[in-house]
Amino acid sequence: MIALIDYGGGNLGSVLKAVEHLGHSAQTVDRPELLTSAAKIILPGQGHFGAMMGALAKRGLLEPLRQMLAAGKPYLGICLGLQALYEASDEAPEVPGLGFLPGRVRRFEGVFKVPHVGWSQLDIRRKSKLLGGVAPASFVYYCHSYHGPVTAHSVATTDYGQRFEAAVEMGSLWAVQFHPEKSSEVGLRVLKNFLDA
Amino acid sequence: MFAKRIIPCLDCKDGRVVKGIQFVNLRDAGDPGALAEMYDREGADELVMLDISASREGRATLLETVKQVARRLFIPLTVGGGVRSLDDALRLFSAGADKVAVNTAAVETPQLISEIAKHVGSQAVVVAIDAKLSRDLTVEVKPSLSGGVVAYTLVREPDGRMRESITFPRAVARCRLGMSPWDVVTYGGTHPTDFRALEWAARAASLGAGEILLTSMDADGTQCGFDCELTAAIAKSVHIPVIASGGAGEPEHFAEVFLRGAADAALAASIFHFGQHTIRNLKEFLAARGVPVRWERSRELKVRSSERPRESSDSSS
Fold it and tell me: Looking at the 3D structure of chain B, how many domains does it have?
């Protein structure tokens, strides 16, 4: 069973629709009991880092999620679902992240408009299952004000004034800053790679 | 590279798409789901659906149309037209909209912007502004001594007298005079207000708007080009993206509004009717002009599970 984590603020509908379009079925999960039988987990994160981590904790999902990820359960984090993997975020300095990725999520600063809304190119750094079949310099759709630093597990980065982590693959832990459910063919390919893996 | 966005617009009335992109080869122009897939395939960066129904029944069937479009659309979808409350917005989000556009209701009740933004985030709130040259200003065009034409603006002074001022471009000079030349109009452009477009755009941004969808009522329908002065003035006064709308007739107009108008995105409907201009050709043109666009040389359906597009029976290809 593919679990779509529902913490009360994510863009579940769009992701669910994309998953079903690709011929898979998923179940929205808002309680830890439902999480245990999941074969794969998707966290479509949106909104405020602190609010999301708080909501996950409140629903008793945070610790089970952390344990399952540490145990190697296949995971795809989207947008905030990537940022949650870092140690912390400037958006909510008092709220710790899951700590699977080193570093701190920061806000965009500089001359460009914030949030980063629209299509930017992926700089693909190495071969991966996550981005298998995705052409170099493909455009993907972003909608975020905060970004994570490039890590050793980076598969692709994007430059928007600052170069940031666009996609990571760390064993079975996959995550993307962009929205694959809004990135047309490229996005569907990424989702398909995760669902078929 | 961060791309400028090309956004086709569908007008919906009483639950049906009445004005949208029509291509020679598309057999089912009336099927919103098929239309959605086609725009995505053609390279649209986002889709806007505007409801122009006058009736409440029309609004209800809009939700069904949104659902059908959203089901097969994997690019962002913005829906607007007659959104008057947080509940209206939430219903559209449930139906599959990624962003909701508010216009008249936001002018009348500005708190609506922050109310929706608090609920779903600023990035999902588009404030649509219809702007028109102030009715205090009129423009005359006279032949010049050198054989060309000169544009004069007749400016109404506070004491009521009319003062003549040479302007080219006309609005730039008015800006230099310290005036904000554009007014906000509501109710689909029928109702003038006393709000200045620049001030309203800045206020909307401060209230939590994620983007401005700016329509020039002067340029709309003319197919003579976007209103670049208006667009640039708004784009430079807010820190959020500005989508230009109104006046597109040729690919060159898009280049102008991106290069001169400082727009982040451009919306169009009429230019794509009857297939004389396609999004694909437009993006090729813009790429050649140095405008950053999302464009791949070959686009093929690789992943979709639905069948290939059908050819119409009288297609010559």
Answer: 2
